Amino acid sequence: MMSGSQLHQVRIRSVSLFALRMCERHERTAGGTHHRWRQRAEPQSMRRRLNIHVLAAYALVTLALAYFGVMASRHIALPGLNVDEVLGVRPAVGGPVARRIFGIPVLTISYIGALKSYIYFPIFALFGGSPETIRLPTIFISLLTLALTFKLSRLHFRPSYSALLVLLMAADPIFIFMSKADYGPIVLMMFFKMLALYFFFRFIATSSPRYLWGVAISCGLGLFDKFNFMWFVLALVVAAVVVFRHELRSAVAQSRSQFIWPLGALLVALAVTARYSMPLFLQTHSRAVSASSSVTSDPLGRIQFVSDLYLQTMNSKDEWFIQKSAHMGTITNWITLPIIGLVVLAATARLLRRRQSPIAQFIDRVGLFYLLIFVAILVQIVLTTAADGPYHIMMLYPFHYILMVSVANRLSGLRLGGVRSDQSADGVHSPSSRRRFGRSELWSPRLALVLGVVSVAALLVASEVRVGVHYQQAIDDQAFSFVWTPAIYKLSAYLDRREVQRNADAIISANWGMHNQVFVLSRSGDRSKYTDLSREFTELDNPQQGKSLAEEFFAGKRVLVLAYPEGLGDRTTAATRDHFLSFAKYYFGGTRLERVVTNDRGEAMFAIYYVDARARR
Predict the structure, then answer these.
(1) What's the pLDDT band for 288 if we cut at 50, 70, 90?
(2) CA–CA dist 219, 203 (Å, integer)
(3) Is residue 29 helix, strand or coil?
């Protein structure tokens, strides 16, 4: 039998263990997860208030999704389809790919997988290729991303703050228009990123291997979609090991055999992707060689380039599809950057083990986790010399908003001035305080904080809506850059005419930026006539070196050649067109300008040349 002291120690241990478990459950509840034990313990009025808050959050999310859907689908065909936008769906209609395995498309180009084309196979088989069938699926996937973001944020934040995060994303013009045109592409990247994070936090909460499999599959599909998803996967691994290493070690210790397979699959996918993508990521694109290559010769210049690109992207000022004169920015950077700086200071204080300092209270482990992901991805973007567009910066999206909401949620859960706003000094409600609602309660610190958060969020959302409406007006005014012109539909309609197809044996694109669109929009029986020779003509400085092109693609045929007219595009565009004209004159005696396609303003957008190569020189 145990002595009285031993019995007393057992009781203390059991009570301590129970108290520990209750504290853990209370901490999860404070993050937004409601449990039955709390519902039983709370009075009916408190449960009613919680239900009202949850319903209000869902109403706000519904409103945000509706706004996003309307803004993204309005004038679905505008701007015109872009060559990169259609690149991902081209294999779904039998277009060329970089690699096949057993006849199945695997890589669309060297660093983009054919995953997107798998989604479009049944869509094109049922409805054919059109602006609606190309863009509506990406808008729907982005709506799923917003809903998934709400589900993820409910694991961390209160319902109102989770809804605020969704609203900030849904009203953001950069997310709206990038989703509409899947510029990058970024739509599947955003979806798999949120899905991997949701599975990760479910794994941390439950230690269930099926959620770890969810992380591995989501990351694997993200890597298959585009190789630069590796930035996120590496950042996720770093942040998980730093912040949740104890939870990871405990979960793996329970059953190593159940966790080794998903971890192994993730590491293999990451290693294979790194093997093939690293040489590509350390190359520079020709359009930004001077800026992107500065990472090796001028690191400060590279940092400046990425910082400018970040600022232009996150405030929606780098809207690529309209003329630069119509650009306008939001106030996003003015709000999120100071908050990110505050989070960095708070994280530094926590890492220095000064958790009791006031600055350290602005961040918890979840905020530290997202901060590490943000910083790790940003560092990789700086080091990747091929990263030179807004679609690369979107790998950081929406972590700046998550950090902002995390700080607001964190502050609302802290004691303000040493006393919670709904409690007396000893933490107990007094009967009189429940009946009175005087000036002191009206101007309580918590209410002031709520009003401050609401005011800042309202200003930011209003700024996003204002810029979004401005860009919609630019769409109405047809103020597009030439590579996004709706005249591509006129070009496609002309090429689809029966008499044009009867009098043409081949249709060749001499300039970059038009082949993919006319190929996907054409009839299936005519697609074998379309060929893209833009790269070949760009490099053809001397027409005498084009003998193989003349023999393979022109000899004995009536050929229509698509190019940009004079005065449109940059020097490379003009040089490519001149290379083609010199080539045609050298081998076939010249060309005939068959037609000039204009936009609604009457501006020349495309030139169609006829080459009769049946009597080759």
Answers:
(1) very low
(2) 15
(3) helix
